[in-house]
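Problem 12. The chain below contains 353 residues. Write out its predicted structure in token notation.
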Amino acid sequence: MADKLNLGPLKSVRVDALVVLKICKHASSSHPQIVTGQLLGMDVEGELQITNSFPFPSTEAPVSDEKDAASGAAAAPRAKANTYYQTEMVRCLREMNVDANSVGWYQSASLGNFLNTNFVENQFFYQSSLNERTVALVHDTARSTTGALSLRAFRLTPQFMAAHKEGKFTVESLQKHNLTYRDILTELPLTIHNSHLLTNLLHQLDNPAPAPLTSLSFSTPMPLAPNFDALDLSIDPFLEKNCDLLLEAIETHYSEVNNQQYYNRQLAREQAKITAWQAKRKSENQLRASAKQPLLPEDEWQRLFKLPQEPSRLETLLNSKQIEQYSKQIDAFTASVSAKMFAVNQGLPRTEE
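Solution.
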């Protein structure tokens, strides 16, 4: 039976509405701090069904250590201090006959800023140590405040998992695994599942008692009253912040490129020294051979010269993927604003006439 349930790759993720509400409440209550939590459920014929969740405990840190506190919260899923807490929570849920199978973890984010080393290390820990068929849910708190829920499911690709197991992200390793920044994560389609009782309730809320035709005011808001925010012509307030984040990511990428160029120059300089030393030693050995003297070792350069260590390309890959993420968000923001502007531009001449 277990083989039948876990057969084939993961195709989609189904999240219960109660789990979505728990994640949203946990993330919004601590915004802008990063929060993480555990996901529970089961895998049914390639569909990962998430039926429950619980948050990881957060440690109180002084204001001066904000960066350390954020880093600690992001690394909570693999922290040893939370192992006992997770074990006890799962044991209690199992005693209550609730799904207690670990199927991943979730993390909050702000404007898509979640691609970093902690995120990758957490997901690698889940896919390699706990359960290979796990996902990471990312809830964007800032984007969800505009009225559209932002919840996405990610997994690490097999190429990235193989490169991470080797522990090296050099140019040779990236070429060996055919790995680029587009091959770090794979996104799975996500759907939200409601129970039959909740679906019935939503249908009742969507069909309130009919109001008189003469009354056009919405002073008394209905449960699902029409939303006129979409008709607002102002530019999205998050567009400027996204542009700032994109510029910061580009500057980080430029710094990484400078580091790689510096390594290449150092390597070329050391290799030139080694080549000159080898040529000199070879000429000395020729002279000693003609004089019938013992030859000097030609591999002594390995002790005399030390080649610089190649920097890891992991940060460059993650930053490149983050730049792509920011670019897609800006494109989505400007698309809606441009459509409104074109619509208004077509309507203005008719109004003047």
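Discussion. The mean pLDDT is 80. Students who got a different answer should revisit the alignment rule from Section 12.3.
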